[in-house]
Specification:
four-stranded parallel β-sheet, alpha/beta, 50% helix, globular, 11 helices, two-stranded parallel sheet, single chain
Length: 246
């Protein structure tokens, strides 16, 4: 569950710290209810200090997600591939990570520690922060926005025994790379946070432009038929429940 995508789809606004904890948790809960696979949720900065992070972890765990990633930006945060980010002191973030680890009720709930320091302090400082967050108990490390294939390789070599997350961030500061490249480096998780948002937005703009030009959707050929869409969103299950309990 992307913070960028959540802000865009729910508010129609950029990811600049406008989404609150209740809004993000509600979004996570809706997604977790709708799918049968583990959900990783963006928990932004944890919405405050270490004490706030404890509540944040409880709320997301209760929402049914499998993991959260928490970042070391100053609130209000920004998308990891935007300019003008600021980061909190590394020790403050380490305390948040330790609090998150202590707060979880299930050992299967994963804490992913993200650092945005690459853009602010440089790559070496970001790696130092990631090491500190690992020592604080993070299950997975997430070094945001490396700016070249070489930097991606340096991150992987710095943590050979630690699970790493790679943020593909389509169109952002990180260059596009192949899945083979990332697998060979040892990245354990790869996320594609905005492919669907960008694709859906392009399709929506295109179809609305066509409707505006023609005055109706008569010339718009649906990519997905009406009945197919109903099947996709669970109509067969509803029909079965009707038969069972009517």
């Amino acid at each position: 569950m992307s913070g960028f995508g959540s802000a865009a789809s729910r508010l129609g606004r950029p990811d600049v710290g406008l989404m609150s904890l209740p809004e993000m948790v509600d979004n996570a809960h809706r997604i977790a209810q709708s799918v049968g696979i583990p959900v990783i949720a963006d928990a932004d900065t944890g919405y405050g200090n270490a004490v706030n992070v404890i509540r944040t972890v409880h709320e997301f765990e209760d929402a049914g997600v499998a993991a959260v990633h928490i970042e070391d930006q100053v609130m209000p945060k920004k998308c990891g591939h935007m300019e003008g980010k600021q980061v909190v002191p590394a020790a403050e973030m380490a305390a948040k990570v330790a609090a998150a680890v202590a707060a979880r009720r299930s050992p299967d709930f994963l804490i992913i520690a993200r650092t945005d320091a690459r853009a602010v302090e440089g790559l070496e400082a970001a790696l130092d922060r990631a090491r500190l967050y690992r020592e604080a108990g993070a299950d997975v490390l997430f070094v945001e926005a490396p700016q070249s294939e070489q930097e991606i390789s340096v991150i992987a070599r710095a943590f050979p025994e630690t699970p790493l997350l790679f943020n593909y961030a389509e169109g952002g500061k990180t260059p596009p790379v192949s899945n083979k490249f990332l697998r060979e480096l040892g990245f354990r998780i790869v996320i594609f946070p905005i492919s669907t948002v960008l694709t859906a937005t392009a399709a929506i703009r295109s179809v609305l432009a066509q409707i505006r030009a023609d005055g109706s959707p008569i010339n718009v050929l649906p990519v997905l038929g009406f009945d197919d869409f109903l099947d996709f969103i669970g109509m067969p299950e509803i029909r079965e429940l009707d038969r069972r309990f009517a």
